[in-house]
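Researcher: Please translate sequence to structure tokens.
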Amino acid sequence: MYFKPAASRCEPIAGVSGYPAYKLWDKDETILGYAVAAGASGYGGPLGVLVYLGIDGILKNVIITENCETPAYFNRVLNEGYLDKFIGKQAHDPFEPGQDIDAVSGATYTVKGIAQAVRKGSWQVGKHELGLQVPAGTRFSLGWQELGLIILYGLVFIAVSCRCHTLRPWVLAISLLFLGFFLNSALSLANLTSLISGNLPDPLERPFWYFLTLGVLILTLLWGRNFYCAWLCPFGGLQEGIYKVLGFMKFNPSSPMMALARKIRWGILWAAVVALIFNNPSIASYEPFAVSFGGQGNLGHWLTLCLVLITGTFIYRVWCRLVCPVGTVLNFLASVKKRTRMLFRPNGPVSRPVDSVFEHPLTCAEVICSECGAGQARVRWADLPGKEKVFLGILVVYVLSIIITLSLNILSI
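Model: Translation complete:
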């Protein structure tokens, strides 16, 4: 149970650089302790805490004041009583999850962010107000996560440059294990909306976030191809595995149907970005990545995952082709380089487009439908074959599940 100080007066502590700290008194002018508002970086962006310490240097209370975390993970941390684990700790303790603080499985970055914020505030008060000897702060360093991601980038560059596409299933499998099941760090809409909103993690605390998010975006823009979806997306690899192992009945939607899906995909993407008005990028995340690799999500996430697992057995990369927001943005960035070249060489030879997910040339009909829509016949429901009607029904169910997910995300803040 949290201890609530009966403070009747507080004054800011002057002369100490760092986080804002306050000295607390009760109504009898007896010093109760100190409060400090500190911050760190969670998974979705800045994370703030208010730490209350007694005059004996023991933590009495920890309150979250700001967060941009995915609601499913953040609520799990609170429900498991993670904040209670700090109560009774000394101001000079290391506050390391998995060492002196019990961790919460499946919410690594959120847990580390809270612990780091508590550590900063406690060490500041302990050193400057209580005269305690606190450990030296950690410095920036590249860990095995960043090095592993750089190696994956290198493998993709070498394989694509040498046209060795036989390596793609192996690289995709490695990424599925490394980025998916081991790190649970697939590139998501929350990463992209964090860039738009400015809710960015500290690069010294979360270098992996920048290596993944900015690394993929910049390389896609410079390279002119969506290599992430085709080679590194762990959820894409999961879908390919399901399709190849369980895909006994195959169905390939027609070009008009795929063109319709692309239009709907942009509409869903913009609807999700509107969630930025809540000043929490993670609210816009409707992908089932967290459920797939971490087992955490709301009812909408689980419903979407079930749809992918079922429909993915007969439609190749169904999520990627119908509703994936990350693929939509990366495909657009990949086309910027080609479109820029066409501006300067309008009469030059036009290379045949390459699909970023499947790594093979598209047919002329698919190019017409996806690029400009020219020559696309009007589709009437009565003229559609039975399979196409089923596909439209599947698309509608996907849209409904995404709407449910976004609604539950908003209600959970």
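Researcher: Any highlights?
Model: The longest strand covers residues 31-41.
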